[in-house]
């Protein structure tokens, strides 16, 4: 008992030190901004913050906007949003040194002088990548991840790291070290996750470009919940070297790293900058495919598949309306829209995603929590992963007639043999080819899909793991998928929500209805999807949706 007490005291000390570091970071930001404003009282902060990234970038390159004016304006705004939402874990103070060097060296790179925020799990030299775990505190990264190296070579200035949920296997944003991050648009709502700190900071206007990761919607949830845009590319389009993962080594559900910004043109600029020789030489496993300008700037009418529901998670009234209204606008603009029949999403979620992520019976996932004091927001998953095989089998059998979805989750969290894992990977490949065949049969260019929304209330994502169906499908398929906000929740949507029943009418469906409530005025997005390696076409489609 004494040993355990001492251990816990040691852990609490580490947490307290990390929280003090976070506090110090905010103080450093405050002092840096104060010094700058005293020396430059006439800087027009409002006009700088109102510039979209491509315009800001142009002004930085031609010298009409000084680098330090932009940098300290964003440090100031980021500080304000961090104070309101608790989204920043650390200020990268070396960014000020990088800024001074950039001023001396002059224009270099497509993102010259652009301040960029970085998700906690992406390595920045000399800083922790914690994933919300105490055990990773005080273990600074030896070098920058490839993505951060390329950003720096393109002239960008990474300036803060942002909060994540413990383990990253969640679409809320809370951990024991840094606490809960709030949605900048409504503090009772979650910003989404796992790139939740990015969502809050970009959504609140404190960062003009953010970099996050996505293994089930981790870029798309925060962007949609906070009213901004994001792109989850094909898993290997951008390098994942030097990026932490919630479950290391699993190949069933493809993770990706991607950008988040206020508009689509900013995402395109970021991809243009990242898809360069530096990326391909620093990580030779990334295919050397530079950004295809011709595809992105094409104005040819598109043939677009669409669906309003996946028949697994019933869309909220606002989600359904978002797809319908977008479909109508696209048709009016001369595009062709074709209904796409989505089937077996339940099988994909349970047999591919849950079973694929936890093919070892959850051993790797559970191992992450060894020595941690608390399991934040993933209690059920942790408990199930920890349960012995016989108990999972028994619970699955008992639950089947009453709560079939719960039964399927437990049944698919068992340990698989190597033979079974290979079989599973083969089955996922087959499914992907069938999906593409259906796509090609309809002669589609892209697909318009619902995106879960509006933002759920804080604490609800942990109870609603099943609601990842709309996003996780495209991690299993490994298709590029982006989100664009298209509408806001109306009083009529809120009224209609009272009749929300769900397809299973189980505890999860009832809970989701509660989680959606109280969202009038909150943004709702749609998902834009393309075939693998067609990020430029995906962005072109997103741009079209955004414009309309």
UniProtKB/TrEMBL annotation:
Q: Which PROSITE patterns match?
A: AMIDASES
Is Phosphoprotein set as a keyword in this record?
yes
Location of the Amidase domain: 73-539
Q: Which residues are substrate-binding? A: 168, 194, 215-218
Q: Which InterPro entries match?
A: Amidase_CS, Amidase_dom, AS_sf, Endocannabinoid_amidase
- Enzyme class per UniProt: hydrolase
Would the keyword Phosphoprotein be found if you checked this record's keyword annotation?
yes
Any GO molecular function: amidase activity
Instruction: Return the Pfam families for the record.
Output: Amidase (PF01425)
BP GO terms, sorted: fatty acid catabolic process
The UniProt record lists the EC number as 3.5.1.99
Q: Where is the active site?
A: 119, 194, 218
- Output this protein's name: Fatty-acid amide hydrolase 1
Q: What is the lineage of its organism?
A: Eukaryota, Metazoa, Chordata, Craniata, Vertebrata
